[in-house]
Task: inverse folding
């Protein structure tokens, strides 16, 4: 049984899934994931008029989705600060 557990943990770690820790954020993204759920906010480049596309991905237990929308860096309201590249 100890060998099976060690092999399982080794396989998960080798596959890039660290038990109980979030994945490192990619450039232009903020957030993290675990095997049980999480979320990420990713911002695109800022256009000349100050607008940019923000995509928010969330999930838990295999269910979730992504929502993308336009914001303006000069008027973020109650949104989190720009996290783009």
Result:
């Amino acid at each position: 049984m100890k060998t099976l557990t060690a092999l399982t943990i080794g396989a998960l770690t080798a596959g890039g899934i660290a038990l109980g820790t979030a994945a490192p954020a990619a450039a232009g993204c903020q957030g993290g994931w675990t095997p049980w759920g999480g979320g990420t906010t990713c911002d695109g480049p800022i256009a000349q008029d100050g607008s940019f596309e923000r995509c928010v991905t969330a999930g838990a237990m295999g269910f979730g989705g992504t929502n993308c929308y336009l914001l303006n860096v000069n008027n973020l309201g109650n949104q989190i600060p720009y996290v783009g590249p």
User: Anything to note?
Assistant: The beta strands are 29-34, 37-43, 51-60, 63-72. The chain has one domain: 22-85. Residues 73 and 82 are 7 Å apart (CA to CA).
